[in-house]
Design goal:
The protein is an all-alpha fold. The protein has two domains: 1-132, no CATH class; 138-248, no CATH class. 69% of the residues lie in helices and 0% in strands. It has nine helices and no strands. Helix 1 packs parallel to helix 3, helix 2 packs antiparallel against helix 3 (61-77) and helix 8 (186-210) packs antiparallel against helix 9. The radius of gyration is 19 Å and the shape is globular.
Amino acid sequence: MNYNTNHHPSGGEDPGIVDSILAIGLYLESTNAFVSGPLSDTTYLQHLQTISLLSAQNPSPTLRYAAHTLTSSLLHAHPTDRLRLTFITDTLENCPFETLKASAVSWLKEELIIAHKRKSDNAFSSTIALAAAQPYLFPDTSALDSASDAEAIQELAQVFPFHIAVVNFLYFITNANFAHIVPPGMTAVVEEIYLGPLKKAQIQASTALENGAETELGRDKEAVQRELQLLGERIAVVEKQIETIVNE
């Protein structure tokens, strides 16, 4: 599956039509009647991708939320764990929208929680899910080491929704309850190639803004500073938890 947005929702669709489609979809899903007959995996993934793109691109917050709710419900309801994992990892790898990639992080977290609560025997109750998602969930951020102040500010401000979701997810999976699903050595690799460079860039960008640098994004400078502060605080919490685990 490829995220080709040329033939998918662009955000300019008639709000009334989008609202009607989502309302019908939510009703059908709630009554277990969304799929009335055989549906190929490819068709299912295409439909799911189309709805998910509405959650990222529609200008209405209400419709974005409805699209996100419908996407989540349909995803988690599919009986095949490998197909659910495929959609999540594909979104993390190929989706051009950071907010939707952040949603994919939440979908993965929900799948892990469901598998844990139900004591399921599937991809989400073993190391399979995180091993598949790791390259896209924890991308190599070492290029930020050579970024200028302006580049660090722009990068972190643009990708903030994804990074804050990933850092919070990292805190979640380093909890003792989920230690058994973390691939051996993964935490150390994530610290080296993702968390470490991200922390340095966060400090660099925050310091630059405090010293008078501008965002150059047309966004409120104080809002960006608050986001960077929150990111730094969450990174510190995760580092502390990882250190605790290592020392046990």
